[in-house]
């Protein structure tokens, strides 16, 4: 358990009917925590061999120091980087709750597993108030919430991208900071490397507080946070590309 994430009393002590959205990961039932540790241990062992990942800027993650969590926003290039990112932070004692498409909840085994590893389902086609509340509550408990504003995997720079700015609203609701993150080297290896091995590089930027923004009205602050945070995400990505020109 991360010493930056405060352990609070669980809202339910029974395994049956336990609400995984309303409780901190550290308060999950013992069997769920054991499953969580087992799944992540297996993924770590696998990814360390197949997708060895380098991190920089982990010290910028400070959730829990003021009793609040942080919203992590990141570019999205493949299904590899959510795994290596979340598992890599778990190995460093940091628990992350990722948002995932509610479509996966239509598959019972997927729903069962995603809930037990901290996932928060979201319906991106609507104003999902339940997801917003779950994210807000997680942040108020001092947890990290991972959001991919691009909404889909971006396979090249020419691909049109429609950014989803809900992350700024989530952060504002919880009065939490937003942490820009970026990845390169997790994309299709056939297109980015001569070898078939992916070697992701991840950079974590400094937290952005609403207190740093110039806008004063609620709507303006949300809009500015969206712009500033994503500009920082792409700046980190471009910095990684400059350092590792063979990766995309």
Q: What would your notes on this structure say?
A:
The structure is a single chain. The chain has helices at 30-50, 80-90, 108-116, 129-140, 166-174, 189-192, 218-243; strands at 54-56, 70-74, 96-101, 120-122, 144-147, 177-184, 201-204. With 248 residues, the protein is α/β, with parallel strands linked by helices. The chain has a single domain (25-243), classed as Glycerol-3-phosphate (1)-acyltransferase. It has a seven-stranded mixed sheet with strand order 1-7-6-2-5-3-4, sandwiched between helices. Helix 1 packs across helix 2 and helix 4 crosses helix 5. The radius of gyration is 18 Å and the shape is globular. The relative contact order is 0.17.
The N- to C-terminal Cα distance equals: 33 Å
Strand order within the widest sheet?
1-7-6-2-5-3-4
Query: How many strands?
Result: 7
* Whole-number total of structural domains: 1
Q: How much is the average pLDDT?
A: 87
In the CATH hierarchy, the architecture is 3-Layer(aba) Sandwich
Report a brief summary of the structure:
With 248 residues, the protein is α/β, with parallel strands linked by helices. It has 7 helices and 7 strands; from the N terminus they run H-E-E-H-E-H-E-H-E-H-E-H-E-H. The protein has a 7-stranded mixed β-sheet with strand order 1-7-6-2-5-3-4, sandwiched between helices.
List the helices and strands and how they pair.
Elements: H1 30-50, E1 54-56, E2 70-74, H2 80-90, E3 96-101, H3 108-116, E4 120-122, H4 129-140, E5 144-147, H5 166-174, E6 177-184, H6 189-192, E7 201-204, H7 218-243
Parallel strand pairs: 1-7, 2-5, 2-6, 3-4, 3-5
Antiparallel strand pairs: 6-7
Helix pairs in contact: 1-2, 4-5, 5-7
């Amino acid at each position: 358990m991360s010493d930056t994430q405060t352990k609070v009393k669980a809202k339910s002590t029974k395994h049956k009917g336990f609400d995984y959205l309303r409780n901190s990961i550290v308060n999950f039932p013992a069997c769920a925590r054991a499953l969580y540790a087992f799944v992540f241990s297996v993924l770590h062992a696998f990814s360390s061999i197949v997708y060895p990942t380098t991190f920089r800027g982990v010290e910028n993650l400070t959730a829990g120091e003021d009793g609040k969590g942080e919203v992590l926003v990141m570019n999205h290039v493949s299904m590899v980087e959510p795994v290596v990112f979340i598992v890599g932070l778990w190995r460093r004692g940091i628990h992350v709750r990722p948002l995932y498409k509610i479509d996966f909840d239509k598959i019972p085994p997927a729903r069962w597993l995603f809930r037990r590893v901290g996932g928060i389902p979201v319906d991106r086609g609507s104003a999902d108030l339940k997801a917003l509340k779950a994210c807000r509550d997680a942040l108020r408990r001092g947890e990290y919430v991972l959001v991919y504003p691009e909404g889909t995997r971006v396979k090249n720079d020419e691909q049109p991208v429609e950014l989803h700015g809900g992350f700024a609203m989530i952060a504002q609701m919880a009065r939490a900071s937003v942490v820009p993150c970026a990845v390169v080297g997790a994309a299709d290896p056939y297109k980015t490397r001569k070898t078939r091995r992916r070697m992701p590089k991840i950079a974590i930027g400094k937290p952005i507080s609403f207190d740093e923004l110039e806008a004063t009205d609620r709507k303006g602050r949300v809009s500015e946070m969206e712009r500033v945070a994503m500009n920082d995400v792409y700046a980190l990505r471009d910095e990684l590309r400059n350092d590792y020109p063979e990766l995309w």
